[in-house]
Amino acid sequence: MKKSLDEHAERFSDHADAYDEDQDSAAYRACVNFVVDHAAPESDDVVLDLGTGTGAIAFALASDAAEIIGRDISDGMLEKAREKADGRGVENVSFGDGRFRAPNVDRPVDIVTSNFAMHHLGDDEKREAIDTIADLGPRRIVLGDVMLFGDDDPDAPFYSPEVDDPATVGVLADAFTDAGYALTAVEMVTEQAGVLVAERVKSD
Ligand SMILES: C[S@@+](CC[C@H](N)C(=O)[O-])C[C@H]1O[C@@H](n2cnc3c(N)ncnc32)[C@H](O)[C@@H]1O
């Protein structure tokens, strides 16, 4: 990880007021749409959205699921998310402190989503994160993120080498497989951003 969690949290809190307006790229919207479409919760599902930020994924899924739990490290982003929930009258979403390797969730969840957040972790930390998520027992994990389909290009969108640490798609696929999940869809949005869908492998 190129910066500490506290530094990342502060960076996002400083940017929280402008965050939603700044997410105007076609690639960001495409990743959000893929994450939401592939998450496809049932009406009785509990969904955990990690690195929820101001709740883009959480709100998009709220009307389809029983409950959405949003977790993030940035107080400023969480405050914005709560303001939006109040303003929109959405009652089945909750937002609180939690991180990939310590999500602060003490019960099983059905689906885990995450969009553009895990790439701040180093590769070994991503593995730990995926193992931690798997321990919550979701049948599906949908990860939208900066990820490398080819060679890295710091000049291309979504990758700032000073703060980001994107994994190759291969590293992520291995981590999901080792945690007991099989990739069932891979959506390449750009050469440096995409969405992976992992389903729990049923053991007999
Ligand atoms: C680029 S924003 C994405 C927000 C939202 N998922 C979206 O799609 O708009 C990244 C978010 O991840 C959070 N974040 C970064 N590292 C994290 C970690 N280790 N655990 C939980 N959240 C983290 C940041 O605070 C920030 O709110």
TrEMBL record:
It is an enzyme of class 2 (transferase). GO terms for biological process: methylation. Residues 47-135 form the Methyltransferase domain. One of its GO terms (molecular function) is protein-L-isoaspartate (D-aspartate) O-methyltransferase activity. Keywords: Methyltransferase, Transferase. InterPro entries: Methyltransf_25 (IPR041698), SAM-dependent_MTases_sf (IPR029063). Its EC number is 2.1.1.77. The keyword Cell membrane does not apply. The keyword rRNA processing does not apply. This is Class I SAM-dependent methyltransferase.
